[in-house]
From TrEMBL:
Gene name tied to this protein: ssb_2
GO biological process: DNA replication
Organism: Staphylococcus microti
Protein's UniProt keywords contain Cytoplasm: no
GO molecular-function term, one example from the UniProt record: single-stranded DNA binding
Pfam families: SSB (PF00436)
Entry keywords, A to Z: DNA-binding
Name of this protein: Single-stranded DNA-binding protein
Signal sequence segment: none
């Protein structure tokens, strides 16, 4: 069986994406909050927070279209890397985004009532 490393997620951009550009190279990083399918105590939603990054045209698209609070549908793969900070090895798991779509937020019933009034 061929190994599969694929992830799809829909979530909210938690803070403004950080975009970097060098001649011939574009890179962006951002965090995505994804709500779990079950609730926690007091019926509150539970979120997982994923570090995401993208390169090239996808990075440019995200930089132009996405900002904090937007809902994105992403597809990509998981990657891990390690680095050293203050003589301590650290490991990071990230989603490398290969495709992205900005989703429209349906209006809440309160917003709909204001529009109809």
């Amino acid at each position: 069986m061929k190994p599969i490393n694929q992830i799809k997620a829909i979530g909210t951009v938690t803070k403004a994406p950080k975009y970097y550009e060098k001649p011939g190279s574009q890179f962006i990083s951002f965090s995505l909050a994804v709500e779990r399918s079950f609730k926690g105590k007091d019926d509150r939603p539970i979120f997982d927070y994923f570090n995401c990054k993208a390169f090239g045209p996808i990075a440019v698209q995200i930089e132009q279209e996405a900002e904090q609070g937007d809902i994105l549908s992403i597809e990509g793969y998981l990657t891990t890397r390690r680095y050293q900070m203050n003589d301590e090895k650290r490991f990071v798991t990230e989603i490398v985004v290969e495709s992205v779509e900005k989703l429209e937020v349906p209006p809440t019933s309160e917003q709909s009532e204001k529009t109809l009034a």
